TrEMBL record:
This is Methyltransferase domain-containing protein. Gene3D superfamilies: Vaccinia Virus protein VP39 (3.40.50.150). The lineage of its organism: Eukaryota, Fungi, Dikarya, Ascomycota, Pezizomycotina. Pfam families: Methyltransf_23. PANTHER family: METHYLTRANSFERASE, RHODANESE DOMAIN-CONTAINING PROTEIN.
Amino acid sequence: MPANMTAFMDKTKNDDDNVTEQVRLEDQHETVVAAMEGKLLYAPVDLSKAGLRILDSACANGRWIVDLQKAASPAEHDYRGTDVVESLYPKPPPKRTHFQDQSIKEPFPSEWQGTFDVVHQRLVMAAAAPEQTPEFVVQNLAGLLKPGGWLQLVEVITTPVPENPVSQNQYIDMLDSLYKNLYAGTKYAKSNLMADLPQEMEESGLRNVQKAEVLVKYGAATTDPSIREKSLRTAVAGVPNFLTVLKEMSGDVWKEEWNDLPQRLQRDLAESGGYMKYIVCWGQK
């Protein structure tokens, strides 16, 4: 059986009943949103217009929904959150929010097709591999949109940043290797896979497709003291789990430099900081 991201998800569920994962998710959300200068939606959606139907696919602990509700207030909308780890959902759920188990590898309920004004998904595309492709995920999400509705995707650009310490660029290379090898033997086994998302969105029938690059700062590179420690924690928290997935892969995948990567990354980001680029893509039905 080919390696996939199940090992990552199982580890976060089993180690300490998601306590560590909840911290990682909160840190990740605040680090990314700070880099986006608080901008949750790049798609030009008028949140002041009450009654929108909004989905956060792979919502994890629902933090994006919580913050979007605050940004939209006093307008009220109908929110849906889907994921495969029910224990992460906030209890009680936020007002006018319903959470439902749903994998991005599976078709969404037929009654949801063509019913959403906004569909959002962030940093989970790799979890579809190898059973499903980015093409499937994008088409699956685009099918949920009403005419005129918007899909927004956020993923990592896996190319090195010149200003980074060596360990941070080795981490980026590790992610790139992970994505490529999850799709070994297919057309998706290539570097910087997520850079193709705008094209995938256009080929799914979306129009007005646009993209933006966001430079996310970690550790000492972050000037905001309220984000600095959170950014450092989230930068290193997932590394051991990614390495677990890579170790399960067949073939000559493993690199010696990954053996002590978590320790070096922690030290270097704390001392000098580092950067990673994210791609934000949005398109309209």
